Amino acid sequence: RDEIQKLETEYLNLKMVGSEIEKYTTRSHELAAMCPNYSNPPYKRIELYIKGLVPQIKSMVTVANLNNIQ
């Protein structure tokens, strides 16, 4: 249970660092698969993903009003 809690905490606090969007996206997908309680329904996954983006990218993604994680 401790390991699951660590993964959940990492997922909830995941942040993009610098311009490493591919690394951030890959880790976000990995954690979403391991933490279904926080990634279902899909809008929760989208919200967590957007929350962790750097401000410059976050604003572009938010304006695009995307409705799926792809």
**Alpha plus pi helix count:** 5
Strand content: under 5%
Q: Note the gap between the termini.
A: 30 Å
Which structural category fits the helices and strands?
mainly alpha
**Major beta sheet, specifics?**
none
Order of helices and strands: HHHHH
What share of the residues lie within helices?
A: over 70%
Radius of gyration: 12 Å
How would you characterize the overall build of this protein?
With 70 residues, the protein is mostly helical. It has helices at 2-13, 21-34, 36-39, 42-51, 55-64. The protein is built from 5 helices and no strands. Helix 1 packs antiparallel against helix 2. The longest helix is centred in the middle third of the chain and has 14 residues, at 21-34.
